[in-house]
Amino acid sequence: MKAIIQRVTKASVTVGEEQISSIGRGLCVLLGISMEDTQKDVDYIIRKILNLRLFEDENGRAWSKSVMDQGYEVLCVSQFTLHCILKGNKPDFHAAMPAELAQPLYNNILEQMRTAYKPEMIKDGLFGAKMQVHIQNDGPVTIELVSPSAPLDPKQLSKQEKQQQRKEKTRSKVPSESGRERATPRPRGQDPNASSGADGDVSSEREP
C-alpha cells in the first residue's frame, strides 16, 4: 500500500462542477491499494497517517505534533495510479487492486480512521470518479509512505528499531575498511579483490 501525504493549509475535491469535500489545515492523503495488500498494510498506513509528526507545537518547534495532536482534518483520495509500472513510456496499472476489490478495502480504511480519530475529521473524495483535487501545500511538505512488504506487529517493529539503533552504534565504532585491511593479514593466495562476504549486503530496516 502506498500513500502520498501532503501537509496542507486547505484542500478540496471537485467532481464535475460540484465540490464534494474540503478541509482546512491538515493532511491530504493520496492512497493507492495494491494486489498484495492485507489488513496488516491497512493497520500500518492508518497508524502512520494519524501519528506522523508533521506539525509544529505551540512553541513553534517543527516536526513535533501529529494531525490528531492538533485536531486537524484529513482528506483521503483513492489513487490507483500510485501503483504504476512503466513499460517504456506507457503506464501499466496491473499492480493496483481491481476497483471491485479495492473499494470495500478503501471504505474500511476510512471507517477505521474515523474510529481511531474523530468521524467528522476524516473526509474523502469519490471512489472511482474523475476528480479534481485542489491543495495548498504547506511548506511544501510531502511524505511518501509505503507499507512494509513483510508487515510486523508493533512489538516486533519496536524490537526492529532497537536492533537498527544498535547496528548504527556498532558501525560508528568499527574502524575504516582500509584500517581493517592493514590490521588483518590476508591469507596467502587469496585474491585481494575478492570479497569475503563477511560484511554482506545490509539492507536498511523500515521504521513503523
From TrEMBL:
EC class of the enzyme, as a word: hydrolase
InterPro entries for this protein: Daa-tRNA_deacyls_DTD, DTD-like_sf
Subcellular location: Cytoplasm
EC number(s) given by UniProt: 3.1.1.96
Keywords: Cytoplasm, Hydrolase, RNA-binding, tRNA-binding
MF-aspect GO terms: D-aminoacyl-tRNA deacylase activity; tRNA binding
Pfam families: Tyr_Deacylase (PF02580)
Substrates-to-products reaction catalysed: a D-aminoacyl-tRNA + H2O = a tRNA + a D-alpha-amino acid + H(+); glycyl-tRNA(Ala) + H2O = tRNA(Ala) + glycine + H(+)
Official protein name in the record: D-aminoacyl-tRNA deacylase
Regions of compositional bias (Basic and acidic residues) in chain numbering: 156-167
Keyword Nuclease: no
Annotated Gene Ontology cellular component terms: cytoplasm
Positions of region (Disordered): 144-208
SUPFAM superfamilies referenced in this protein's UniProt entry, alphabetically: DTD-like
Family: Belongs to the DTD family.
Domain of life: Eukaryota
Predominant subcellular localization, coarse grouping: cytoplasm
